[in-house]
């Protein structure tokens, strides 16, 4: 969409120009165009420049930077202001380990998180919300008939990217917000996994509401992911995803690795004194261990103790 273009203006089709070299264009990029930008049928413009990115949301296939998969870094989206972490309350069940990873990625990329708990018609949010009580994490509960105004006002004026496991209802939500989007919606199999219905990320302009003057914003639907690898985030930055634990580390010895085998790590005393939830510390340490290649990142416990 061209700068200043309204929702009814034609979409311009453009291809990468040779000047770009090996730089890849990702969803959310602002680009410089030359050529036919009329948007008329058959018109083709060329992308000659990528503007500096305000934010870059990345993930790796795995956590361990010493493996090929861990080094394979993907830019999920550029220039996002808000990371909407979509988690179903059932079918598939919520995984706080996954949400924690998304929070780390959001803080690392300087993108504000918003937790959207979908399928509230199937299960209650208590277990998930209890786990996050010490964080000032904004959240919304959604069921198929929920009014969307609260969500729309949180999306207004910003670029928001939806992330979550397959089958949690990202595309369902996008279709409710942008009916013309007609994003394909899949079913969830008997074992509670989605079928990876969406296969590429797509940015959509949200429709303007008649009574609001504000820019309604943009939403990016992404394909479901199994995990959110964090090999690109330093051990120190991992802690930013755990604001409820950060304060305790002021009392740690210099260069404390914060691992369970570090006898002087102040995090144990902090949790023992009831100042943070022990499950949060366990989750942080699982991430630390997983970055060091010690554990399988795919076995995160369910907050309700249900095995995967
Ligand atoms: N009961 C219930 N079902 C829902 C809700 N939201 C979505 N679903 C169903 O969940 C299934 C998966 O929805 P999708 O929107 O395709 O999920 P997705 O997150 O886009 O999945 P991928 O594209 O595979 O990543 C569909 O059968 C939806 O109808 C909800 O609030 N309640
Ligand atoms: Mg989808």
Automatic annotation (TrEMBL):
SUPFAM superfamilies documented for this protein: P-loop containing nucleoside triphosphate hydrolases (SSF52540)
Superkingdom: Bacteria
Domain EngC GTPase: residue ranges: 78-226
Keyword annotations of the record: GTP-binding, Nucleotide-binding
Residue ranges constituting the CP-type G domain according to the UniProt record: 69-228
InterPro entries registered for this protein in UniProt: G_CP_dom, P-loop_NTPase, Ribosome_biogen_GTPase_RsgA, RsgA_GTPase_dom
Residue ranges, compositional bias (Basic and acidic residues): 293-308
Spans annotated as Disordered: 288-308
Protein name: Ribosome biogenesis GTPase RsgA
Organism: Micromonospora andamanensis
Lineage: Bacteria, Bacillati, Actinomycetota, Actinomycetes, Micromonosporales
Gene name linked to the record: rsgA_1
